[in-house]
User: Fold this.
Amino acid sequence: MLIRRLFMTLAAGVSLMLGVDAFAADAYPAQPVTMVVPFAAGGPTDTVARVVAESMTRTVGQQVIVENVGGAGGTLGAGRVARADPDGYTLLLHHISQATSAVLYRKLPYDTLADFAPVGLIAEVPMAIVARADLPPGSIGELLDYIRANKDEVTYGHAGIGSASHLCGMLMMDALKTPMTTVPYKGTGPAMTDLLGGQIDLMCDQATSSIGHIKSGKVKPYAVTSTSRMSALPELPTLDESGLDGFELTVWYGLYTTKGAPRAAIDKLQSALRAALQEPKVLERFADLATQPVALDQVTPEALQQRLEQEIARWRPIIQAAGVYAD
Ligand code: ASP
Assistant:
């Protein structure tokens, strides 16, 4: 009798749990979702996040609110998501630095490969080397000579130790065997403000942010970091063809949530992200920002996890050979 009662109680508990789970899956998201951008507002990662969040808000029927948690090259914001409740209500929109910071920082307060639940890849964009409008060099060749001649009198702004712009600058300095004075910001949004104001000389940023300023002549463009020229800026040479052989740095974006989030939430986020990348409004905006959405079969947790693993493996020897660490 006792055993039977125990069995009944357990069965009721299990069905209640199943009932609650089914309800939660159906209801997700039942409240606003936070999308953490690990850089300051106004930069390229923020811009991409706002385009994606706006579309996802329409699809999931709840506000997807962008929150900028800049600092420590993107690792502060990533840490915030790693430690969030695993309920699918805290997302991370991050880029290549999610992989490179795992190598650039010898100690991180989270495990890059184990503490996040990937949702899918989003888009890719090369970076562009841009300077304040009145920097003297007239071409990338002249700029490289100018850096060699002026060394640490040249000021290079970046989005914090471990960010993509920091990595770009480190690779340039390593290739030129010349130091510059690096100026860290919480994102390239504020760095761009200072470049436009002439407070710093140079930066390397996703073309997303620089293209508008390049076209309006407010910054001086020199080169792009992809191995082929960008169709949106065909007059700009690549660094690879300008003497920095093999230089290649493409920023790729991914969407994550906290490890342990319910499968149903991840599925819903994934289909909202896929819907965003098929929405004409999003595609037009990305085209204006020279940002290339990934193929839809890349918008999967597996594709993002695989990219993350491949990129950690790719950058480890390059960063180690350059002997540069963030800590
Ligand atoms: N472009 C930045 C980076 O260098 C980040 C940003 O503000 O989007 O990583």
